[in-house]
Amino acid sequence: MTLGTTQEQETIVVKVITLGKSTQEVRRDSPFNLDSLLKELGVNGGLEIRVNGQAVERTRPLAHGDTVLMVPKIKGGR
User: Fold this and answer.
1) Is residue 35 exposed (0-12), middle (13-18) or buried (19+ Cβ within 10 Å)?
2) Which of 22, 3, 14, 1 minimizes the C-alpha distance to 71?
3) At 72, is the pLDDT very low, low, confident or very high (cuts 50, 70, 90)?
4) Residue 25: beta bridge partners?
């Protein structure tokens, strides 16, 4: 008999807020990370991304109840 670690899959629900545009809930099986979410949503730049109010790496795993905030980067000034 071989003992190994199994990773249980659970469904996680993440709230995705695109400032000025929309709010949606995304349901996926874990493990699921920020990079996978952004690719799925077609996000390829031009937005500042925060998870639960914190700037994070795109490789960050997402957990049930996380809030992903996407804010357009503001350009301007001189």
Assistant:
1) middle
2) 22
3) confident
4) 15
